[in-house]
Design goal:
heterotrimer, A mainly alpha (45), B mainly alpha (615), C mainly alpha (82), A: 45 residues, mainly alpha, 2 helices, disordered N terminus, B: 615 residues, 22 helices, 73% helix, elongated
């Protein structure tokens, strides 16, 4: 019982291993997306 | 209407036969009951009937129009599916609670007056609490009690509102109310608690994941959707509902992203989906109300399907946290496929039911020019795909391999999921039958080129976001943790209240108790010998006087008196201290003294009374 | 468990193929979008691939918001309420 409780209290984590290079891809895609949206709203005014 | 009987009665009375049936007979009964109810509802014509006179009012069990019929159909269909899914559950009580629960929701759907509405409302809350308690864990017991307290509060709001309404209007009829005064605000709050309005929503993700694998399937269908029904009946076109609904679609998806318990993720997405319906009610056009009913219809099916697939995972592995699961597609391929169908439907993929219903509400907000609402709904559509559409199947069935090797669930569970999955796709491909039962005539075409491509882009690029976030390691790690929600307030307040009861209030009680016990003790002593204390006081006073006299006039006589009274007073004091009232060394007093004392008191009383009061 | 049969995603090649198909479908969606006649509700949603950009940015925003704002505020130990 005590052991179970201890296990419950632990903040067990499951991280996702990054694949190298994808952080940059994400950033670029985010930049393009945001820029395009900004352009649309600017143009739509 | 002569041939039909109220479906609520059918389910609620039918539930009481369940404990007397065993094995195959019970299974057959559980399946036939919804079938009979469905044939029965096909026989119900539109109109108002099944009225019963009660005191000065008329109770109506059959207010049947297209709105209530649409909800009636789906409530019965999902009862069949969920009963099929739950066939292997041994406890008769759980089947009974489920049937009574479904029956109460049907009762609400066809209730034409506030009194029967309230009674079914409370029936539903209690039977749902039993479904949660059948989870039979410490957490489910506590969550069931919290569920019950919250819903009894909601029911009380409804009751007070209803009483005020009847008092103001003299009519018990349940129909369009609109937000007009205190009565309607109270009724609105009562409905809002069941519909999981923001801030009032915490009972839902608190309680639903704690029920049994099959209980949650029932729970996901009835409480919130019957609340949607009554809101659509009583408050269509109420502007605040637009904002409430939009908030409901947006905020739970943030919680869903970080939540670890997959059934809790589904609970949050349930609030998100009900948000779409509430928004539709608030917009109040024919298109949006049609959208609300259609979305409720489809939502019940795919939400039940998703909860069934997660229930199957829980049933087969005993685990439901994303941290413990993964890689189950290898051994549960059919469940995986059904789950993906449900996930696609909730996300609104073209050719699934979510697409043909959700888009009506989004379009209604677009045509209405409500651009902030429209943005929130689009955002929520993308977000729901992100957590319900991808997160649920991905973390349960794919992701990292948890090493769990199990089997497909039993045939009845697979069949139930199969039927729900079939209906999800059937409605998506042929929306005609669904559109034909909606309250208003439909001239909405879901499948236009622009519509399909827009929706696909929204979904696929949400998926791209998920993929890139996963691959770059930015996606939040699954963590076993509690995420605080608004239930914090009443859970912590509850604890604080208990502390307040246990510490200061109990202290006060003990203080009062000790004081009165002490008072009683000394009064008893005093009562046993009322003259003792005056006597002691008198003797000490006399002693003091003699001592003063002895100090002023030093004479032997005073000194003797001092010694005498010191002895007498000391003896008296010793008697009181020893607690002995009648000792051998105690001077007895004649009864006459007591009588004299009471005469004196009586005389004083009579004097005061006659002279000052009576006059 | 050595004898366990190999499943679809156990082969890294299959995963790559799956991703490749996904990326191709994304490009296709953007290309097709230019040829579809739109009937927008507002001024902005008629632009090509508005939904794609919005879906992507919204979801990244959603996850970042949930991870760096909400989780920091609401996360507690699992026995927090016990």
């Amino acid at each position: 019982m005590k052991e179970m409780h201890k296990e419950k209290g632990d903040l067990q984590e499951l991280k996702h291993d990054p694949v190298p290079g994808y952080r940059t891809v994400l950033l670029i895609a985010l930049l393009i997306g945001t820029a395009y949206l900004a352009f649309i709203f600017f143009a739509a005014q | 209407m002569i041939n039909a009987i109220p479906p609520a009665i059918l389910f609620i009375l039918g539930a009481f036969f369940i404990p007397f049936l065993r094995g195959k007979l019970r299974s057959a009964y559980l399946l036939i009951l919804p079938v009979i109810a469905f044939l029965n509802i096909l026989n119900m014509r539109e109109g108002v009937y099944w009225t019963v006179g009660f005191l000065d009012y008329t109770i109506t069990f059959g207010k049947v129009d297209k709105l209530s019929l649409a909800f009636g159909y789906i409530f019965i269909i999902v009862a069949f599916i969920a009963n099929l899914y739950a066939l292997r559950v041994k406890e008769a009580g759980q089947h009974m609670s489920a049937c009574i629960y479904a029956g109460s929701a049907l009762g609400i759907t066809f209730a034409g007056d506030l009194l029967s509405l309230f009674i079914f409302w409370e029936c539903m809350a209690v039977s749902a609490a039993f479904l949660i308690w059948y989870g039979k864990t410490k957490d489910s017991r506590a969550a069931g009690f919290r569920y019950l307290l919250v819903h009894l509060f909601g029911g009380l709001c409804l009751l007070i509102g209803a009483v005020l309404h009847v008092y103001e209007t003299g009519s018990i009829e349940f129909g369009y109310l609109g937000l007009t005064g205190l009565a309607s605000y109270l009724i609105f709050t009562g409905f809002g608690i069941n519909a999981a309005f923001p801030v009032l929503h915490a009972w839902l993700p608190d309680a639903y994941p704690e029920s049994t694998f099959s209980g949650t399937v029932f729970l996901s269908a009835y409480t919130t959707k019957s609340a949607v029904y009554v809101l659509a009946r009583a408050f269509p076109g109420t502007e605040i509902l637009v904002w409430i609904g939009a908030a409901m679609t947006a905020f739970p998806i943030f919680y869903a992203v970080i939540e670890n318990n997959l059934r809790r993720v589904l609970s949050y997405s349930l609030i998100n989906q009900v948000g779409f319906m509430v928004t539709g009610i608030g917009i109040g056009t024919a298109l949006s109300l049609n959208g609300t009913v259609a979305h409720a219809f489809c939502h019940i099916l795919y939400k039940a399907l998703l909860f069934m697939s997660m229930g199957a995972v829980l049933h087969q592995t005993g685990k439901i946290n994303a941290t413990d699961l993964g890689g189950l597609y290898k051994t549960m391929p059919l469940t995986t496929i059904f789950c993906i169908v449900g996930a696609a439907s909730i996300s609104g993929f073209p050719l699934t039911s979510g697409f043909v219903s959700k888009s009506m509400i989004v379009s209604a907000s677009g045509y209405g020019g409500l651009y902030i609402i429209w943005f929130l709904l689009i955002f929520a559509s993308a977000g729901v795909f992100h957590h319900s559409g991808i997160k649920i199947p991905f973390f349960a069935f794919f992701s990292h391999d948890s090493g769990i090797r199990t089997k497909e669930p039993p045939l009845n569970m697979l069949l139930a999921m199969g039927i729900a999955a079939f209906l999800c796709i059937f409605i998506g491909v042929f929306p005609g039958p669904l559109y034909s039962i909606l309250p208003y005539p439909v001239d909405y075409v879901p499948y236009t080129g622009a519509h399909v491509i827009d929706q696909l882009q929204l979904l696929f690029f949400s998926a791209l976001a998920f993929t890139l976030l996963m691959l770059s390691g930015v996606y939040p790690a699954e963590i076993r943790a509690v995420n605080l929600d608004t239930d914090w307030f009443y859970r912590k307040f509850g604890k604080a209240f208990m502390w307040f009861c246990n510490v200061p209030l109990t202290g006060l009680r003990l203080g009062v108790q000790n004081f009165s016990a002490g008072a009683i003790k000394s009064l008893t002593k005093f009562g046993a010998d009322p003259l003792l204390i005056p006597e002691i006081i008198t003797r000490y006073t006399v002693l003091n006087i003699y001592q003063i006299l002895a100090a002023i006039f030093p004479s032997q006589r005073f000194k003797d008196k001092c010694a005498e009274f010191e002895f007498k007073a000391g003896r008296m004091l010793k008697i009181t201290q020893s607690g002995r009232v009648y000792g051998t060394d105690l001077p007895r007093r004649p009864i006459g003294l007591g009588v004299l004392l009471s005469f004196i008191f009586l005389f004083i009383y009579a004097f005061v009374y006659l002279v000052f009061i009576k006059r | 468990m050595n004898k366990e049969k190999e499943h679809f995603f156990d082969k890294p090649g299959n995963f790559k193929k799956f991703l490749g198909g996904f990326y191709i479908s994304l490009i296709l969606l953007i290309v097709i979008d230019f040829f579809v006649h739109k009937h927008p509700y507002f001024a902005w949603d008629g632009y090509p691939s508005f939904y794609a950009a919005f879906g992507f940015v919204a979801c990244v925003g959603l996850v970042l918001g949930a991870k760096y704002i909400l989780r920091i505020i609401v996360k507690r130990r699992e026995d927090y309420y016990d």
